[in-house]
Amino acid sequence: MASETPAAARTRRDQLRDFLRTRRARLTPEDVGMAAGGRRRTPGLRREEVAVLAGVGVSWYTWLEQGRDINVSVEVLDAISGALRLNGPERIHLYTLAGVNPPRDGGPRATSVTPELRNLIEAWMPRPAMLRDRYWNLLVLNGTARTVFGYGDTDHNCLVTFFTNARYRAMHVHWASVAPDVVAAFRADAARFPDDTEFGRLVDDLSTVSPDFAELWARHDVGDHVQTVKAVLHPEAGDLVFDKTTLTVADRPDWTLELYNPRPGTGTEGRLALLAHAPAATSA
After folding, report:
1. What InterPro entries does the record point to (predicted)?
2. What sign for the dihedral angle of Cα 140, 143, 147, 153?
């Protein structure tokens, strides 16, 4: 972790002490398959019981819970997490309080989109909105996004669509100038998950069918997601210009929500009225 002041380190270790004590107090021996062993002055597991469950020394665990300045390893923190039955957020909190960088997300979780998030994307109509996962697969997009940006029923990944859908490419006014930034942003996203082989498969498959993508990927450029302007020449509505805002979903940091607002002074908002017959939002 980044360097910290002595006062900050003491505060962190104090919080670690309280956190471990409260997690231990909420468990009973029966919860973890141990015999109760007579009456207890305080509720919960004893320190020595947690040490046994985690496979660490009693003295070492006592020092950890007392907030002493000792070295801890990822393996030991994982063992303590298991012994105390910590959930995902609690495990990350333990790492942070112990002064160790929390582990990366080991892999993608189930892609179940909450009704609230779907409702938000639907309510953004008649403006475009979409939700994508870490691989840039389209999870949800509203009817306006489909109509305005040229997504068809066979489009399931916005990176693949960007490079392989001729209709999409023809509609996007600044396609050639934007393409390097798109690839650079995808490379930055892929680098966050070095153990996820799905990124490599996607890159290999797309490189095979798109020389443009293969050439840009070979540059090894890296870039951030930034607030951008997206210009579209729609065959029915004409010139449409949007301010694009990219947001991370709080409880799914590998998901990205993209919201588009008509750019003031471009006439885009009025032209969207021509597309009022756009289909309802559906999952990609």
Report:
1. Cro/C1-type_HTH (IPR001387), Lambda_DNA-bd_dom_sf (IPR010982), MLTR_LBD (IPR041413)
2. positive
Comparing C-alpha atoms, which of 108, 105, 168, 167 is closest to residue 139?
108
State how far the Cα of 265 lies from the Cα of 45, in Å rounded to an integer: 66
Structure tokens at 190: 């892929």
pLDDT tens for 27-49 read 888 777 776 666 667 778 888 88
Task: Give 83-142 pLDDT, tens digit per residue.
Answer: 899 888 888 888 888 888 776 655 555 558 889 999 999 999 889 999 999 999 999 999
Q: List, edge to edge, every strand of the sheet that includes 252-262.
A: 228-234, 238-249, 252-262, 129-132, 138-141, 282-283
Give the number of other Cβ atoms within 10 Å of residue 169's Cβ: 16
Residue 282 has a pLDDT of 43
Q: How many residues does the chain have?
A: 284
Beta strands in the chain (DSSP E): 129-132, 138-141, 228-234, 238-249, 252-262, 282-283
- In one letter, which amino acid is 40? R
Q: Which residues contact 2 (CB under 8 A, 6 or more apart)?
A: none
Coil, helix or strand at residue 157: strand
Is the whole model's pTM more than 0.85, yes or no? Answer: no
C-alpha 156: how far from chain center: 19
Report the C-alpha gap between 178 and 165 in whole angstroms.
15
The number of CA neighbours under 13 Å toward the Cβ of 55 is 7
Q: Which residue has the tokens 């100038």?
A: 177
